[in-house]
Batch of 4 targets.
Target 1
Amino acid sequence: MTRLPLIAFAAAAVGLFAPAGAALAQSPSDSAVTLTFETGARTGAVMVALYDSEAGYAGDRPVGGRRLDVAAGEHTVTFEGLPAGDYAAKAFHDVNGDGEMNTNPFGMPVEPYAFSNNAVGNMGPASWERARFAVSGPTAQTISIR
């Protein structure tokens, strides 16, 4: 199977995936992002990456990433210790649990994916402008993965 470049963060961020409650940074901060994912299937895992800049978002250089075990009932992740600023998230539901964003022969995703703000793209990922959200203190979003 091929990997969709817009979701290639899964491969690049494998080292960032940690238990859902792990802190993102060591320095204390009052800001945190809690993301809750609504999924259509109860199998596999949700892979999520968090970005703190447009350049990082475009270049698939996340500041944090997590793997949520949907089969075990995990649907929420919190990134703690964040400095205030703009953030965006990319996620996909690895329904079959193979660790990849599966695509068809034309490179189109065959597994559900989503972006923060439930933003949608046009022939590609949602833009930073559509997906970004301000963080100053505790911030929460619910994202529907389709």
Note: The longest strand covers residues 85-94.
Target 2
Amino acid sequence: MTVGFAPAPGVQPGHKPDPGSAPPSVDAILAEAQQLRWQIGGDFHQALMEAIYTDAAAIADRAVTRPGEKPRFDLDRTIDRLVTSRIWGFPLMLAMLTAVFWITITGANIPSQMLADLLIGKGVPLLHSIAAALHLPWWLSGLLIDGMYLATAWVISVMLPPMAIFFPLFTLLEDFGYLPRVAFNLDNFYRKAGAHGKQSLSMMMGFGCNAAGVVATRIIDSPRERLIAIITNNFALCNGRWPTQILIASLFIGGLASARWAGLISALAVVGVAVLGVLLSFLVSYGLSRSVLKGEVSTFSLELPPYRPPRVLQTIYTSVIDRTLKVLWRAVVFAMPAGAVIWLISNVQIGGVSLAEYLVNFLDPVGLLLGLNGVILVAYIVAIPANELVIPTILMLTVLTSGVSGLGAGAGVMFETDSSADLMTLFTAGGWTLLTAVNLMLFSLIHNPCSTTIFTIFKETGSRKWTTVAALTPLVMGFIVTFFVAQIWRLVAGLL
């Protein structure tokens, strides 16, 4: 029931005394209180107690099971018993992530092909005919069309479909209330690693963008534990690295299975890499908390919000506008100048050899030692501004150095097809093997943060020292991991 107070005689509801008037005397206040007491009725106290006990009984009925009563069904508790279970929590989490990636990989193939056909297959000849009609010099049309436009078109055709599927699915899980349960499951592991349990929440943000994940570490009060979270956030696969993982897994890992199972195998490979990133964050957190960042582990209360029915239309709109298009625009902004740089180093020649070929040949011995190649290393140098540039740079440089004809229109020009067979033809001609693909996926996971994340780390820490540590630690780890994987792989292959 609702209990209310009646206004005093002559006093309107919401009335406020004039600030310039004298305050009422104590006797006037007591007199008005006495008058209001009789206006509210003699049963006010009883009615108030009844309302309180009625609400308390309703709450108790939901939470308490009395002896002899059948336990009441509570949907939230039933779901939590599964998703936060020590037995079923992690298998369900892996199954859910696998389903998300499988839907993303399978669903993105057709729209990616359509966009590539439209933007590259039809767009490039059309733009070249316009440039010829305008009598543009070859170097200008090459820079604008074969460099800037093709890099941008490839980024759009490769990134837009997966992001348009992945982000809404991921946002639906977040809107439903599942991601805090993931953080709850991971809390004990972070505590044992000497880190703060809230680091799991910042890691979840890092799966969208590492820069956002670094900012999200503000929820951690301890400076020591916040610094650990900042340094290790790079091991969460950001949106700029998902296209690399999905494409390479689809071509090389999924290609090992039949067409029926290729999508599932590819999804499992991507999930495996994402889980490896979480394990590396535990390992590095443990190492930091036991060495240069020693200290006591903080405690905190993690509130699990109630489950909510996902607002599908609003979630799709929000994820498309705030995540997909925002990330795509950032990729396009970086892709255009990067495409220009790639075209220039591919067409500026010294002694009949382009600058790109000099760089690739110079880094090839190091790349082969790491189970990679010079093209991949040059691509990661070019892609320091944004991870989204890795794949288009690799493809453009592979066309240049592989000598495959029919896939491009000239030096440094991206090829005009998007089928898996043509991609595999290109990579095979470039000397790629399964080892190259596996180590590229590992290096993509571990390598240094992008420039935006590095700048964000500096802004959040205010320290050049820790910014350098956060940037170089994963890079050194990437070199070490790929080196040992390559040596063990070749050793086993030699024994077999």
Note: The CA atoms of residues 154 and 406 lie 17 Å apart.
Target 3
Amino acid sequence: MALLVTAIALAATLILRRDGPTPAFLFFVPAVAISAWYGGPGPAALATGLSLLLIDLNFLAPGGSLLIDRIEALEIIAFVIVAATITTTMGALHRALALAESRAAELKSLNEQVGRSYDAEREKRHVAELLAQAREEVLGVVAHDLRNPLSTIITSTDMLLQENLEPTRRTELLEVALRNGRQMNRLIGDLLDTVRMHAGKFTLDLEDVAVVTIFRQAEEMLRPIAEKRAICLEAVPPDDGVTVRADPFRVSQILGNIVGNAIKFTPEQGSVTIRAAANGNHVAIHVTDSGPGIAPADIEHLFDDFWQARRNDHRGVGLGLAIAKGVVEAHGGMIWCDSAPGRGSTFSFTLPRAVTAGSG
């Protein structure tokens, strides 16, 4: 399949070039996509390598040579980025479909044992509907939110193939492709964390961590984002010696999701403040913003999977707060939100306080 579609891509490019200029990579990207979907990473890698060889020999100067200049090297790098992204995306979709089909098969096997009573039949139909809805929801989210950055990567790469493109503009387009690739990686990571939580396979690497250290790392990570939006980010450190028993990476994930949301929805010239207070065996961390606030009817859904208050807002897939809730509860803590329209919001969560001398 990989050999066939690559040969077709070469033939199509040669035919179109008889009538005028045609981008060298135009038909080879679909060839890689078809190979990845039907064959997996191996055929996709074969199609990528063969495509690069054929393009270099037939369409890059000097003809019939493997020599390349700097501009051609950038074009090849862009093509490899697109090919790798396509291969990863196809693999993620295949795994999602396999997981959904596996769950459907398990449900079918379970339902066959329930019996034919009216209540059992009604329960079977209800569970089947929930499963079908969940499968469609997951596949819909994956398809939509992986497609957007993938489309951006393909568009940027297509522009990179234009002749006489200035080096500065070429660098900007490569940065766009890289940024969207990272966005796809974050989405896949969020989906994997959600699956692990629902499967009961979510684990923590616990250690004693100073809250001051947590605040400093969060500020270093998020301050550039806040400054870009002209938002004042302030981390008020707690008293010295306040330490929690937690997984440092996962706590950073919690704060990243909550503070990231606060920055995202707070208007320019607004403020986001992080505070902490020790309370008995727990430490409460509060993130307060000067944003528009949240309606009471929406607060109860904030921590649901795939939920967004603004249905037409595609700045996220609605997993950040759900993951934060799962991580907090895995630590034995609680998470909640205090907010009202026009008064900003405060997201709070607790973590177990480390048992050390003088901790009280």
Note: Strands lie at 207-210, 232-235, 243-246, 271-279, 282-289, 335-339, 345-352.
Target 4
Amino acid sequence: MTQIFAHRGYSALYPENTMLAFKEAEKAGADGLELDVQMTIDGEIVVIHDEKIDRTTNGTGLIKNLSLKELRQYNAGYKFKNLPEKTPIPTLEEVFKWMQTNQIVCNIELKNGVYRYEGMEEKVIALIEKYQLAKRIIVSSFNHYSLVHFYRLAPHIETAPLLSESIYMPWIYAKAIGAKGIHPKYYRGMEDIYAQSLANGFAVRPYTVNKEAAIKRLFAMNCTAIITDDPKAAVKIKQMAQ
């Protein structure tokens, strides 16, 4: 049965990568979350997509140059005028504490392709172990060197390379770097590659899948998961298909 992962939480309706978006995704029936992590100047793992805070908050600056205390001053929900209160940038630890109250799965994307964030892998592993979440975590990244480093440090935690372009026999590549799945950018017509990857025992979780026809195609082929901005809509399509 194909799982539904909420892309940056329920980002179609709520501020992306915030606890509000994650909680609303769970309420909508999502099986999992997809979130992004960066690292502050004081070594805190925070949940935000961009290297800068400019797009998603009312502040400016690079995360690597700001402390957690400084980040907390800004509102990650400032574009959502209907929200009654400030929505802070969460830490990964806050997400993990909340995950103790449910069974949701979490795909963590390491955003260390632009800035290396020395020690990020070790810090993420330490948090996963602290909250005993190894079986509910998938770690992905466009930085495949980082993924290999992560796998060598913690081979018991699932990894999956993010792929923005199609590559030849991606399941062979995934196996070569110790990954148990692939997270490809969704393109129509790639279903055959997905099917071959699944047949070879690898998880396939395409991103970002929002169109009903595409969601139906991936459900029909029993794709491992889809990563979508609108988990509620995907849940509805899934229920109608059953």
Note: The longest strand covers residues 32-39.
